[in-house]
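input
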Amino acid sequence: MEAEARSVLDDALREVQADNSVTAEQVPGLIRRLICQRYPAKSSEYAGSSNGVSVKDAERILNKMSSVERDALRRCYVLGEAPELILSGLNLTPGDLQKIRSRARAEFSASKPKQSNVA
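output
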């Protein structure tokens, strides 16, 4: 599964690098399209991520953020850039980046379905 995910992300990265017109807002859709094209039988498995947040919820959360916040998150989590590059590339302070990441974690945690603790 990890190799499949890495392969899809590598393909997405190549597409983004080849097409400068791809925006940060388009990256989730691009990844979803690649998954559906490569693994049509498995695409229903990817409707929700392993952390319990659906793709639709993730897009809703990202759309509430500014373009700088989305770009910082994309560069951090999708492209795996070093924090120093993100800071200099987006003219952010370390505190700014930490706030962006914390806000995203809080938003994603809040959107997870509530689990009942019935034993």
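quick obs: Helices lie at 2-18, 27-38, 55-63, 67-78, 83-90, 94-111.
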